[in-house]
Design a protein that fits this description.
- This is ATP-binding cassette domain-containing protein.
- This protein has a six-stranded mixed β-sheet with strand order 5-6-7-3-8-9, sandwiched between helices. It has a four-stranded antiparallel β-sheet with strand order 11-12-10-13.
- Helix 4 runs parallel beside helix 6.
- By secondary structure, it is of the alpha/beta class.
- Helices cover 34% and strands 29% of the residues.
- The chain has two domains: 215 residues, Rossmann fold (3-Layer(aba) Sandwich); 87 residues, Alpha-Beta Plaits (2-Layer Sandwich).
- The structure holds adenosine-5'-triphosphate.
- Adenosine-5'-triphosphate binds next to strand 1, strand 2 and helix 2.
Length: 342
C-alpha cells in the first residue's frame, strides 16, 4: 500500500483513510425518544477502516463493493464533504476537507441518487449558476456546451424545468453541469442508476470522451458491471470498509485466482451438500447445476463430477463478472473444498 509518494502523476491518494460515524441509538416510541434524550446511547460505525491507494492522471478506476461497504463515504472524504476520522487524502495536491477554491475547481462529485440541479428552474439556469461559481468565461462556457451537446444531445432539454425532465434527461444535465468547469478528477457515484440501457451507454460514452479529451482521473462506483467493464481497466473492491482487491479487472478472469463456471445437467437428482464438495455451488435447480471451480483445476473437477454423478451434459464457461466480483466480497466467500476430488 502506498507510502508517501512524490510521483507527480498521482492525482488521488488515500493513506490509511478511515471514517467512523457515531450514531445515537433510540428505542421506538415516545418513551424511547425520552430515554434517548435523557441518556443518549451511542454506537460507532466503522464505515471505512483505513484504506490506502493511489490513482494516476487519466486513470479510470471502478470502485466496487456491496451495499454499505463504504464507497460513498470514501468518495465524500476524497471530495472534502466529510472529514476523515484518521488517515489522509490528497487530491491534485490538495487536502480535500479544506475545500480550497483551487481544489474545488479541479474536482467534481456526481451522485446519481442525489440531485444537484435546481428543481423548479430550467437546467440552463443551474448551468449559469455554475458558470458564475466556477468563474468560467463566456467563450469557454459556449465551447464546453458545444462539446457536451455533441455527445449528450442536450438541445431541447436545457430550457425545460428540471422537475419535468425524464430521469435520463436529468442525468445528462446533472453530468454536464457537474463537468462544466472541466475538472481533472471525477468522482462518479452511481451515475447511471435507474437509466435504461441506451442512456447508460450514452453516459458511458460521454465519460469515456471526457476522460480522453481532458486526461481526467475517474473514480466510478456502479452496480452495473457493464459500466465498469466498458470504462475501467483497474478496480478497487471494498467490503466492510476494507479494501479487498486492487488490480486489473482482467486479472480476475484470467489470473491465478480466476475461476470457471461448470454447468451440469444431471440425469439423477442429488443434494447441494454432495455437489458442494466439488466447487462453490452457485445454483441447484432440479437437475440443473452451476458450480464455480478454480480455473487451474477445471479439468480435474469436471472429470470428478463426471465420475461421481449421472451427467447428461456438462459445459465450462467464464463466470459473469458480477459473480467474480461477488466472490471477492468476504461475506460471500466460502472455503474451497478439495478432498472429494480423489
Ligand atoms: N451519516 C451516517 N451516519 C451513520 N452511519 C452512516 C452514515 N453514512 C453511512 N453510514 C454507514 O456507513 C456504512 C458505509 O456506508 P456507505 O454509504 O459509505 O456505503 P456504500 O458502499 O456507498 O453503500 P451503497 O452501495 O448501499 O450506497 C454503512 O454501514 C452505513 O450505514
Amino acid at each position: 500500500m502506498p507510502t508517501p509518494s512524490s510521483d507527480p502523476s498521482v492525482t488521488v491518494r488515500a493513506d490509511h483513510l478511515r471514517k467512523a460515524y457515531t450514531v445515537t441509538e433510540k428505542e421506538p416510541g415516545f418513551l424511547g425518544s425520552l430515554r434517548a434524550f435523557v441518556r443518549p446511547k451511542t454506537r460507532t460505525v466503522e464505515a471505512v477502516k483505513g484504506i490506502s491507494f493511489e490513482l494516476t492522471g487519466g486513470e479510470m478506476v471502478g470502485f466496487l463493493g456491496p451495499n454499505g461497504a463504504g464507497k460513498t463515504t470514501t468518495l465524500k472524504m476524497l471530495s472534502g464533504l466529510l472529514h476523515p476520522t484518521s488517515g489522509t487524502a490528497t487530491v491534485q495536491g490538495h487536502t480535500p476537507q479544506k475545500r480550497e477554491t483551487a481544489f474545488l475547481k479541479q474536482i467534481t462529485l456526481v451522485m446519481g441518487q442525489k440531485q444537484q440541479l435546481i428543481w423548479d428552474l430550467p437546467a440552463q439556469d443551474s448551468f449559469l449558476v455554475n458558470q458564475a461559481i466556477y468563474e468560467i468565461s463566456d467563450t469557454e462556457y459556449r465551447a464546453t456546451m458545444r462539446e457536451f451537446d455533441e455527445v449528450l444531445d442536450l438541445s431541447g432539454i436545457l430550457s425545460k424545468q428540471v422537475r419535468k425532465l425524464s430521469l435520463g434527461e436529468r442525468m445528462k444535465c446533472e453530468l454536464a453541469a457537474a463537468l462544466l468547469h472541466r475538472p481533472k478528477v471525477l468522482f462518479l457515484d452511481e451515475p447511471t442508476i435507474g437509466l435504461d440501457v441506451n442512456m447508460q451507454e450514452r453516459i458511458r460514452e460521454f465519460v469515456r470522451e471526457y476522460n480522453a479529451r481532458f486526461n481526467a482521473t475517474v473514480m466510478l462506483t456502479s452496480h452495473y458491471m457493464a459500466d465498469v467493464t466498458a470504462l475501467c481497466q483497474r478496480i478497487l473492491v471494498i467490503d466492510g470498509g476494507e479494501l479487498v482487491f486492487d488490480g486489473d479487472l482482467s486479472a480476475l478472469t484470467s489470473g491465478p485466482d480466476a475461476r470457471k463456471t461448470v454447468k451440469l445437467q444431471l440425469s439423477q437428482p442429488t443434494t447441494a451438500a454432495r455437489l458442494s464438495e466439488y466447487g462453490e455451488l452457485i445454483r441447484l435447480d432440479g437437475l440443473d447445476v452451476e458450480l464455480t471451480v478454480p480455473r487451474s483445476e477445471v479439468s480435474a473437477r469436471a472429470a470428478a463430477l463426471l465420475t461421481h454423478f449421472e451427467v447428461a451434459d456438462l459445459t465450462v464457461e467464464d463466470p459473469p463478472i458480477e459473480q467474480v466480483i461477488g466472490q471477492l466480497f468476504r461475506s460471500e466467500r466460502k472455503p474451497e473444498p478439495v478432498e472429494a476430488l480423489a
